[in-house]
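Re: [ENG-882] Designed sequences occasionally contain unexpected residues at chain ends

Forwarding the minimal case from QA. Structure tokens:
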């Protein structure tokens, strides 16, 4: 029987533990978000960062990453990474870091999925040539373009431009731009994505180069980071084939780097007494590798720069891609009526060169080449 004054009926079950209760005090809690530039009613089922994640995944810019170059063109094979598969790999590694450090992994995944949205066709080759084409009106930077995409170019609602993402996601993307301002350190979730990006491309660019025959496994095994990873593998396995060794070393490199960053970050947080988001933003960078591993990563990156990114076949592709993009850009500036209507309406606001830059930057590799063929070579006006 109920006590006098108590509500009738069976006792209620305790409320389920909310995921935010599992977060560390230095993690960014969604309840503390600064919100959106254009106010919206809260979603009844999802946190603000889950809403942001869905908006990014459903965007056209995200889908187009599947046919944009990471390092190597799709004409060489279908094994190596595209800009989309790289993005997904960064998201997986970043979430692992976030869970281990008790950070907000919804925010981390959203930041990771957005981090390369601004890349043009042909990767950094496309970025460099668009930077030249737009030199008189601010240049081109893929991180700045990613912010422009989510704030201006994509649409989720006719009432406002862009995707109207949470302030923390916009700030995280802005932290990657050359013109970032402010004295505060990035959120730890932002730092986790940066660390995951480094872990991922240091590992997988080498894997792609091996598969495509631009490198030999023996060359990489002379690099200190790969030597150490191979020693770790061989302590467990002594009879691996070359392909099995390559695969095992790649897994070891991922696990080793992850463990190193997690352990280093935990020690740094404890040593600095970090107990809040504000304290984390006042501290030195925390989501980092040990100095020893960081030095080995720099050696690997220097090797990849000389032997892979400057490989004759890569440079040949780069030159052809840049010529095609430069010619396409110039042709569209000379013949603006060829712009799709959704871009043509932006010319008065943004100027013709920037509008053409937005259009070309959004293209996939194959669409850019098709447009070059159909418009430039055909002499369309």
């Amino acid at each position: 029987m109920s006590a006098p004054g108590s509500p009738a009926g069976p006792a209620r079950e305790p409320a389920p533990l909310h995921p935010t209760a599992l977060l560390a005090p230095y993690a960014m809690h969604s309840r503390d978000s600064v919100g959106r530039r254009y106010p919206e009613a809260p979603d009844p089922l999802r946190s603000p960062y889950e809403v942001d994640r869905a908006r990014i995944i459903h965007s056209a810019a995200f889908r187009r990453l599947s046919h944009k170059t990471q390092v190597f063109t799709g004409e060489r094979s279908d094994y190596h990474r595209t800009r989309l598969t790289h993005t997904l790999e960064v998201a997986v590694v970043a979430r692992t870091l976030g869970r281990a450090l008790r950070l907000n992994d919804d925010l981390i995944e959203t930041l990771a999925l957005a981090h390369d949205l601004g890349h043009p066709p042909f990767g950094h080759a496309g970025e460099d040539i668009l930077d030249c084409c737009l030199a008189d009106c601010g240049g081109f930077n893929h991180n700045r373009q990613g912010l422009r995409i989510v704030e201006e170019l994509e649409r989720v609602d006719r009432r406002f431009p862009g995707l109207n993402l949470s302030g923390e996601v916009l700030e995280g993307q802005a932290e990657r731009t050359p013109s970032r301002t402010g004295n505060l350190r990035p959120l730890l979730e932002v730092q986790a994505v940066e660390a995951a990006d480094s872990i991922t491309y240091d590992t997988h660019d080498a894997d792609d180069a091996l598969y495509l025959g631009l490198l030999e496994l023996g060359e990489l095994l002379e690099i200190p980071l790969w030597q150490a990873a191979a020693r770790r593998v061989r302590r467990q396995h002594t009879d691996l084939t070359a392909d099995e060794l390559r695969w095992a070393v790649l897994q070891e490199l991922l696990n080793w780097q992850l463990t190193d960053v997690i352990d280093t970050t935990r020690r740094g947080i404890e040593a600095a007494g970090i107990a809040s988001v504000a304290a984390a933003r006042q501290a030195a960078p925390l989501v980092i590798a040990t100095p020893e591993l960081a030095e080995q990563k720099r050696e690997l990156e220097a090797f990849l720069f000389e032997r892979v990114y400057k490989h004759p076949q890569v440079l040949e592709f780069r030159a052809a891609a840049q010529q095609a993009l430069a010619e396409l850009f110039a042709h569209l500036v000379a013949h603006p009526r060829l712009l799709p209507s959704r871009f043509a309406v932006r010319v008065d606001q943004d100027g013709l060169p920037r509008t053409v830059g937005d259009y070309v930057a959004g293209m996939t590799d194959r669409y850019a080449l098709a447009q070059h063929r159909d418009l430039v070579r055909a002499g369309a006006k």
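QA comment: On inspection the terminal residues look reasonable. Residues 39-377 form a domain with the Hypothetical protein af1432 fold (CATH 1.10.3210.10). Proposing we downgrade this to a documentation issue.
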